[in-house]
Amino acid sequence: MDIDKLVGRINELARKQKTVGLNEEELAERAKLREIYLTNIRNNFRAQLNNIEIVDKNEHGQGDKGLLH
After folding, report:
1. Rounded to 5, what percent of the chain is helix, strand, coil?
2. Where are the beta strands (DSSP E) in 7-53?
3. Dist CA 1 CA 33 (whole Å)
4. Structure pTM?
5. Of residues 65 and 33, which shows the higher confidence score?
6. Could you tell me if 33 and 4 are in contact, meaning their C-beta atoms sit under 8 angstroms apart?
């Protein structure tokens, strides 16, 4: 399921919860969809962190890529 459809279904279930409530099957579906969404967010965030390059200037004004001092 693509992210737009996933969010759309989560929102649809949220609206239904506010109006008439959800049955057990819908509650289980909502929990599963939320976990899929959160896993996707965590993976994307982790990928962004893994792509960060740390650049630090040494005493000669040169950048040392990827080195921590």
Report:
1. 65, 10, 30
2. none
3. 10
4. 0.71
5. 33
6. no
In a domain, 67, yes or no: no
pLDDT tier, 18 (very low <50, low <70, confident <90, very high otherwise): very high
pLDDT at residue 24 in the model: 97
Count, residues in the chain:
69
**Which residues lie below 8 Å from residue 9, measured CB to CB, with a gap of 6+?**
1, 29, 33
What is the CA angle 13-42-39, rounded to 5?
45
Domain that holds residue 45: 3-56
Token pair for residue 44?
């994307």
Q: In the chain, how many domains are there?
A: 1
On whether residue 30 sits in a domain, the answer given is yes
The 8-class DSSP code of residue 7 comes to H
